[in-house]
Design a protein that fits this description.
Blueprint lengths: L8 H23 L3 H4 L2 H13 L1 H4 L1 H7 L2 H10 L10 E5 L5 H9 L5 E6 L2 H11 L5 E4 L12 E7 L8 H11 E11 L4 H10 L6 H10 L3 E6 L3 H6 L4 E6 L3
Parallel strand pairs: 1-2, 1-4, 2-3, 4-5
Antiparallel strand pairs: 5-7, 6-7
């Protein structure tokens, strides 16, 4: 019996899809800011301090509100999709103007101990003025070199900060180190899609590939408990960045 190969026409669609994805990746790479990979770590840290200490940093809270990230992150905490109940010690990494910090103060238990850290001392001053709260302890600190003892916190929140490291490993290792066994982390970071590329250009940060980041999380000994989405629309469009609840095994 004569056999026939599968028609070539049926093979075109997957190839076209691959070409389309490749084209999008090329565009994303052209848009994305590559400064973080072109200069030394110390030069880049100085650049970040200048950016966030200057006019852009002053507009950070407003930009977060206009992008809806600020109210949508609050909804994650208010609805207990990321549950702060029962947490005694919280570290908010990269507090900025207090975008996530303000929601932590609102939705955590009243007696919680909250520490806010940021590379930019200017941003911490803005957070203090904006929130008008003396409850948090404000500490100027580098995510890759956190000045806290091992297992000092039950919970870590890190909103759109990890992308300011050329390699996620040092930052994730440090946050894992200061978390107690069984502790949880709310991690939000910029993804390597078109929206993320524009975010990168605006804030001089990098983007992370979702699959690659999951591998790094596993490598540093953290467990991805669940993937979160800012809204159903964000989930459908695969937008809003990468939002995860991570755990440190007991």
């Amino acid at each position: 019996m004569k056999t026939y190969k599968q028609p070539i026409l049926r093979l075109r669609r997957p190839r076209d899809e691959r070409r389309g994805k490749h084209k999008h990746k090329v565009i994303n790479r052209l848009v994305e800011n590559r400064l973080i990979k072109r200069i030394s770590d110390e030069e880049y840290r100085r650049k970040v301090r200048r950016v966030y200490g200057g006019r852009k940093g002053a507009l950070l809270a407003t930009a977060s509100k206009l992008s809806l990230h600020l109210p949508l992150v609050e909804r994650l905490l208010r609805s207990r999709q990321f549950n702060l109940r029962g947490v005694g010690r919280v570290l908010d990494v990269g507090s900025g103007a207090g975008q996530v910090l303000q929601h932590v103060l609102k939705h955590a238990d009243p007696g919680v101990e909250v520490t806010a850290c940021d590379l930019s001392a200017a941003m911490l001053r803005r957070a203090r003025r904006r929130l008008k709260s003396q409850r948090p302890k404000y500490v100027a600190a580098d995510l890759a070199r956190l000045p806290f003892a091992d297992e000092a916190f039950d919970c870590v929140t890190c909103g759109y900060v990890l992308e300011h490291l050329p390699d996620a490993r040092p930052g994730l290792k440090e946050m894992a180190r200061v978390m107690a066994p069984g502790g949880r982390m709310l991690l939000l970071t910029t993804e390597d899609n078109f929206g993320g590329a524009w975010t990168s250009r605006m804030w001089y940060c990098r983007t992370y590939n979702r699959r690659e980041l999951f591998g790094i999380i596993d490598e540093v000994g953290l467990v991805c408990h669940k993937e979160l989405w800012l809204s159903k629309v964000h989930k459908a469009l695969r937008a809003g960045g990468i939002c995860l609840e991570l755990e440190k095994p007991r």
